[in-house]
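Morning run. Coffee first, then this:
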Amino acid sequence: MDGGFYPADKLPISDLVMAAYARSPIPELPASAFQVAGGTRYLGQNAPATVSKGTKNLLPRLGAVYQITPRTVIRGGYGWFFDNNSTANYEINQWGYSQGTVTQMSVNNGLSFVTSIADPFPVRANGARFDETLKNTLGNMARAGQSFDFFSTDWKAQSQQRWRNNFGPRAIPAITLSSPR
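And here it is:
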């Protein structure tokens, strides 16, 4: 497995497609060699629970303040930061969990409006305002028949080291370098 694609997975349509091919194979590929296999899995469903193996990094922070006089201080700080989801590495596959909603506002190029601009997502006949996402309901058929790109889960996170020093009046607030865990 790499990046959510499992080449050995059997799809629900595999037997039907292989049987249809066997009825009328092409000369270049015998029916016995024609295989339909491989599918995607969603995180946590017979798949790893995370998209990366390379994100367990130590994130050290260090800061110090020294008061020279009652009104003068020296401050310093250092931190090491990692970027766990950068487009330089990959973009997370959210297929099935991202869904745009399109509402037809006008049928005559804006001369009149079918829907009020004040309420661009009116309640539909089914009671919903937005198109629902498929989520993981399609299982390993989610990307069947489509082009597929995947990423290595063994990438190394980009890192950045930051430091800052200043010398000045005590009234200036110190800058704290931190990141949520």
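Residues 14-23 form the longest helix (10 residues). Good start to the day.
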